[in-house]
Write a structure and sequence with these properties.
- It is a single chain.
- By secondary structure, the chain is of the alpha+beta class.
- It has one domain: Aspartate Aminotransferase, domain 1.
- It contains 3 helices and 6 strands; from the N terminus they run ααββββββα.
- The protein has a 6-stranded antiparallel β-sheet, with helices on one face.
- Strand 3 and strand 4 form a beta hairpin.
- Helix 2 crosses helix 3.
């Protein structure tokens, strides 16, 4: 775990830290070739510069966000925002379904929208895979 992600986790309350550590372990195992860094103040994983998945603490939960998650067509992921993102929210580490998360991570490698070039394309997304 890089020092910025460690600092992010360290700043959390114990219950939230447990959720984030569970997510971190599964995401790191499922995306071993992804770059991981703190981006816009929360941990995010990238494949070839394209954001894939990240999580962050909200007021009452920890939100897991897949940038292309709406295209996964998976139960447990809810649409988020006006693009292709989908989220799951957790209030305890027990709620993290490792089996579902592994399935979502597998799909995240195969189903991607090109967020890396969204500004260059003036807000238009194109499917990469």
């Amino acid at each position: 775990m890089n020092k910025d992600v460690q600092a992010y986790h360290k700043a959390l309350a114990a219950d939230d830290r447990a959720i984030c550590e569970a997510l971190y372990a599964e995401i790191s195992a499922g995306l071993p070739d992804a770059e991981n860094k703190v981006w816009h103040r929360h941990p995010v994983w990238f494949l070839e510069g394209n954001p894939i998945v990240g999580y962050h603490k909200l007021k009452d939960c920890v939100r897991l966000l897949f940038w292309s998650g709406q295209s996964f067509e998976e139960p447990g992921l809810e649409p988020e925002g006006s693009f292709k993102a989908a989220e799951a929210r957790y209030t305890s580490a027990d709620e993290v379904d490792a089996k579902a998360l592994k399935r979502w991570l597998k799909k995240s490698k195969k189903i991607q929208w090109d967020y890396k070039n969204i500004v260059k394309r003036k807000g238009r997304l194109e499917r990469l895979m």
